[in-house]
Specification:
By secondary structure, the protein is an alpha+beta fold. The protein has 5 helices and 6 strands; from the N terminus they run ααβββαββαβα.
Length: about 140
Amino acid sequence: MAAVALLGTGCGGQDTAATGGPVALERIGEAVGCTPQVQTDVRELRQGACTTARGAYVMLTFTSEAGQKSWLEEAQPYGGSYLIGKRWVVEAEPEALEPVREKLGGRVEEGAHHGGHSSAAPSAAASASSSSASR
């Protein structure tokens, strides 16, 4: 319950920090119910992942809306379900996203479906996106 209380403070539209920036990766982890293991921490984005009883999550925050849009354009063809907020994304199974959406807001979008679902595909797209964004 403390995590829910923390999430409610300092949020204008539920999905932004008090400074108008994206929700911090750690706050997304609180909404998910885990501490994200940071996998990528570069100027353009931060990416973390964790697993709970509801499933595996990949969480990303972006420094710009253009970076977020680019990442989504590269990741969605691989499939998956995405909870999308202002300069942040959470990827997980659809039923695992709903409790997080209730806490953070945002909208759920589905990527293309090409058979089996794998959380690794969006992570690979994020790496490709961050590499191309840093050029």
